[in-house]
Amino acid sequence: YRQPATVRSTIHRMIRLPERANLTRYRGLCHVLRGLAADSQALIFANTTKEALAIARHPAVEGLGVKPLHSEMPQSQRDWLLNSFRGRRIRFLVTTDLLSRGIDLPGLQYVILFRPPEDPTAYVHRAGRTGRAGDEGEVITLYDKSDWPMMQKIMETTKQNFENSSLPTEEELRSHAYAAVATEILSVPSNSWKCLEAIARDLVTEGKAREVLARVVSLLNTDAQLQPKKSKVSLYSGVPDFTAVLISDFDHTLYPSVEALQSRVPCPLERVRKAEAGWVADVANSNVDYLMKSGVVE
């Protein structure tokens, strides 16, 4: 007796990018990511390593914490990133077909294709990262007019029913963000807010309860916070979207070479140079936070 194959519950969705000069593919991706459920994760596929890095470093996407994983980084970095993603310490991971096969990501809700792959078979493998073992999943493909012939080939090859969708509007994204804040407010444990009840009573004067609550939600999630962080310029090299870091190693025994340094840090370093106090390098802004948490940089 053979067990029946597990039925996958996967939605295949395609979003055509509007032909507007001020809406790039990167900003389209930003809209999609901001519109996902607050507790969800997404694996983003790019067609090349160069494109994956460009996505993670782009100002429109940078503030969302998208981390790149590709074949040109040391295996130790790849393992760290993948384990962090599995452990839900990273929400958005952008990669190439390096992760399209043989990688199990239980419970992954979303797979997003920055653009259609060059081979319809690659779509099948990428889409297979979600909706596994009966879990629900969704595959979202961004495309424009020039991508349509490949989208047709993918639909013919996969025999899947693709839903046509549009990008969420700014108003929808704002409502989505405010709803997430409201949920977070209601989840605060009582031992954190009981001591503030007296202040709350003073604020909530007659007929003002709704107004005060609306002000609180607005304060916690302003329009400025809804937008990705602005790009920075490295003080070391002047390159946009990078931050200069100093990795202390006074006698250069911890990291005797650039290769040794790269193998020990959890993210790629650019323009590495030996200095008297250690090593100076550029780090993509999207990687700075977890580089600091790693303890390598003080």
From TrEMBL:
The organism's superkingdom is given as: Eukaryota
> What InterPro entries does its record include?
DEAD_box_RNA_helicase, Helicase_C-like, P-loop_NTPase
Q: Does the keyword NAD apply?
A: no
List each copy of the Helicase C-terminal domain by range.
28-173
| Short name of any one Pfam family annotated for the protein | Helicase_C
- GO molecular-function annotation terms? ATP binding; hydrolase activity; RNA helicase activity
Task: State the PROSITE patterns in the record.
Answer: HELICASE_CTER
Would I find Nucleotide-binding among this entry's keywords?
yes
GO cellular component terms, A-Z? cytosol
Kindly state which keywords UniProt assigns to this record, in alphabetical order. ATP-binding, Helicase, Hydrolase, Nucleotide-binding
What PANTHER family has UniProt attached to this entry? ATP-DEPENDENT RNA HELICASE DBPA (PTHR47959:SF1), ATP-DEPENDENT RNA HELICASE RHLE-RELATED (PTHR47959)
Protein's UniProt name: ATP dependent RNA helicase, putative
